[in-house]
Design a protein that fits this description.
alpha/beta, Alpha-Beta Plaits, 34% helix, binds adenosine-5'-triphosphate
Length: 323
């Protein structure tokens, strides 16, 4: 049984579309990252999964419980930890009182251990907390009853870089224990570090579900070559070579020497083809240096986020499949 399953899940706020026909499943023990630009529908999915709002159409289950079956969902939620994007607390009470209250309500088997990692000033009223301290308190509250599934909305927002690392390390350790995570994020480096799979949502639609590695594979490599000669226009007109730039210019210069600096020419492009034809082509030149690197994850995601880039994604993916 998947930890989370949605089937054609749709939520409208009046005429405003939150999400449309969204189907996905998160397996037990998986860390699933949910990505998308502002207003894409991430929080809408999370709030619907937690039963804070009803779907307009479609269905969803959390740990087997139908989100529209209040009783079943209430039972399932005792095994779920929720970390909201902007934790709302009664501002007058202290962090310690909140911990006690949550402990009485849901149980507390882990707060001591968690407070060693995340240490908000427990004896101060929450209203006096900094953004980072609020987030740390919310983390302790979400994990203290040792849930099987964590649903988190931008969990590292407000944490300083050191605490962000602590949190990601903690997620990795929890994953080893078999805990399932479903979380929304804008921070691609953290997604890279902890996620087994990612789903990308745009304009309320799920546009991609994939492993991070497969996304990167399909997005091709960044190739940068330094040549001792001046290649002709079209020298890198290879199947699978995109956005070829010479000496930092996107246009091949008519005056071939103009693209040369210090007697060498630098050519860079994104490459989704096979290596053999590329290497053969490179060896026709006076090859001085060659770097083939992963495309930056930001670029990969921008292709999915940017509506205008849709055609580019389709073209690059089709070529990668052909290659
Ligand atoms: N309570 C609401 N009433 C009306 N419209 C809403 C409501 N909540 C969300 N929306 C709309 O639904 C769409 C999806 O919003 P949602 O908050 O789910 O996006 P998000 O991906 O979480 O965005 P962000 O990254 O900015 O948090 C947006 O157009 C938003 O304006």
């Amino acid at each position: 049984m998947p930890a989370i399953r949605t089937d054609g899940l749709t939520k409208y706020y009046g005429d405003v579309r939150g999400i449309e026909d969204l189907s996905l499943s998160v397996e037990e023990g998986e860390v699933f990252g949910f990505l998308g630009p502002n207003g894409a529908g991430k929080t809408t999915v999370i709030r619907t999964l937690l039963g804070f709002q009803s779907p307009t159409r479609g269905s969803a289950t959390v740990l087997g419980a139908d989100v529209e079956d209040a009783e079943a969902l209430r039972e399932a939620r005792s095994r779920v930890g929720y970390l909201p994007s902007e934790p709302g607390f009664d501002e007058r009470v202290t962090g310690r009182r909140l911990l006690e209250y949550h402990g009485e309500l849901r149980g507390d088997t882990r707060s001591d251990e968690l407070l060693e990692l995340f240490d908000p000033p427990l004896d101060r009223p929450v209203g006096d907390y900094s953004r980072g301290n609020r987030q740390m308190l919310a983390i302790v509250l979400a994990f203290m009853h040792d849930p099987d599934l964590l649903i988190m909305d931008e969990p590292t927002s407000g944490l300083d870089p050191l605490k962000q690392e602590t949190f990601l390390e903690f997620v990795r350790t929890e994953r080893e224990r078999g805990t399932t995570f479903f979380f929304s994020s804008h921070v691609l480096s953290e997604v890279r570090k902890v996620c087994d799979r990612v789903g990308i949502v745009r304009d309320g639609h799920l546009v991609e579900v994939s492993t991070v590695d497969s996304l990167l594979d399909r997005s091709g490599k960044q190739v940068r070559v330094t040549l001792g000669d001046s290649p002709d226009k079209g020298a890198f007109d290879l199947p699978g070579a995109h956005d070829v730039t010479v000496g930092g210019r996107t246009q091949w210069d008519d005056d071939e020497n103009a693209s040369r600096e210090d007697g060498v020419t630098t050519v860079s492009f994104t490459y989704t083809g096979r290596y053999e034809p590329l290497l053969r082509r490179l060896l026709e030149h006076d090859l001085r240096d060659l770097a083939i690197e992963e495309a930056p994850l930001e670029d990969v995601f921008m292709r999915f986020y940017d509506t205008d880039a849709e055609e580019t994604v389709e073209r690059v993916e089709a070529e990668a499949e052909d290659a």
